Amino acid sequence: MAIGVPHAQPYPTKPIRLVVSVQPGGNLDLVGRALADRLSESLGQRMFVENRPGANSTIGLSSVARSAPDGYTLVMVAQSALVAPRMMKNPPYDPTRDLAGVSLIATLPLLLVVHPSLPVQSVKEFIALAKARPGELNAGTSGNGSGSHLALELFTRLAGVNIMRIPYNGDATAIVDLLGGQVPVKFDNVSTSLAHVRGNRLRALGVTSVKRSELMPGLPAIAETLPGFQASIFNGMMAPAATPPDILSRLHGDIVKFTQAPEIRKRFAAQGTELQASASHGEFTAFINTEYLRWARVLEAAGIKPE
Which pTM value belongs to this model? Predict the structure, then answer.
């Protein structure tokens, strides 16, 4: 009698935990929850979201880095996953060593916006004004290592200008002062600034994506004036290092379908979010490695040292 060769059960055979290392309600959380709902259907097992905020996202990320590499513990990542370890003397994880890429999911371009009282209409004019008035222009940002902070640091380095940074506890307070003209410059999320731009309460000079954003095709990319500038926020998914490639490929394929679904794309575009998947899980791993080094150079040039 022939004896059949046993086969492992196809992945997944039990629920999957998706860690989101920020508080509920933010963009990373919203993307993660929408993705978990869709993947629960396509994978045939429930994917549930677990919020584990704290320590600039490192609590949730380090817990996943220490999890079994079996595809049942995954994590949503953004810039903070790469920046936070660089700002710590003894980081609890290394994103290039302890985690493997699954896929890019979304990009969130920022807008360089100014108060209408500032006499500039373009990025080129803004740079010229900043060079004519070194150290006199103020720009509001949220905390150290935030998207608005890193965008400003990269901009000043590439443009060769001296702009005074005014740090805020969060973007909401900074926007209030921007609208009031107390701080005339900010790199801000599309979702919070676009309505003010359309109402002529703010002026948008450029977008931080490499190319013009499909959300605002008429607005130039800053890179058109400053080659090499790219400071959009990204959202993606990673897994513990050594997770089998076939599991990563399975998850990546379902994420591609999620990002291409017209009704989901439309919903997130209204929030200033462009859905975009990597070509493969390996491509996202390479992206993470590149970004980790790129932002390390920006932090070093800005004099931001580990604490």
Answer: 0.88
